[in-house]
Write a structure and sequence with these properties.
Length: about 200
């Protein structure tokens, strides 16, 4: 069964979210044969957390839950045949990558860039908060890293990321990844298949 030609899943995610890594790493393989369009929508999740009264990841408030999360992510990565290593620092600033992805959301390399950043953090234990790390990823994609980083720090791009984050907040996003399908939201990597099924049903 294939989806309607207008079928689309918007994936709101944060580059410092381990479950976002799992979803972004596997969503295209699931949706492409079904004719479903996927839009990767990185946001500044920390801004939403602050509006909800959290100063950082809610996982940090519950050490047992945090410990379980790392076990679960590693287990799910093995299940789906994905590489994974627990990063040395969590959470981590990801605003540089989010701005690049926002500024170049229509670029052909956008999705590849998003996945490479997530892998840099959750596989290679790189500090993706550092512009040099993001620049290296861009160069590996044969892109003009300096020009892209410079453009991504413009006030207009910062404004676009704020608008997208506010849009996610208005949709009811409270964690990452959140898949939005025709107004319905599905939170968490374990709901990815449900989001796809809903997309096929509408």
């Amino acid at each position: 069964m294939q989806a309607d030609v207008n079928a689309r899943i918007d994936v709101y995610f944060d580059f410092s979210s381990p479950y976002s890594y799992l979803s972004v790493a596997r969503i295209q393989q699931i949706t492409k044969p079904l004719n479903i369009t996927v839009r990767l929508m990185p946001i500044a999740l920390g801004a939403i957390f602050q509006k909800l009264g959290w100063q950082s990841s809610p996982f940090l408030e519950q050490p047992r839950k945090l410990d379980y999360m790392w076990i679960d992510v590693a287990r799910q990565a093995r299940k789906h045949g994905l590489e994974f290593e627990k990063p040395a620092q969590f959470p981590i600033g990801s605003i540089v990558a989010a701005r690049v992805a926002t500024a170049y959301k229509e670029a052909q390399w956008h999705d590849a860039f998003c996945l490479r950043v997530l892998k840099a953090y959750f596989v290679d234990n790189k500090d993706i908060s550092q512009p040099a790390v993001i620049e290296k990823i861009l160069r590996e994609l044969n892109l003009d890293a300096e020009e892209i980083i410079t453009h991504s720090t413009s006030e207009s791009v910062k404004g676009l990321l704020r608008v997208r984050t506010e849009q996610a907040d208005q949709l009811g996003v409270f964690g990452a990844p959140t898949m939005v399908v025709g107004g319905a939201i599905f939170w968490g990597d374990d709901r990815l298949e449900d989001a796809v099924a809903h997309c096929l049903s509408i």
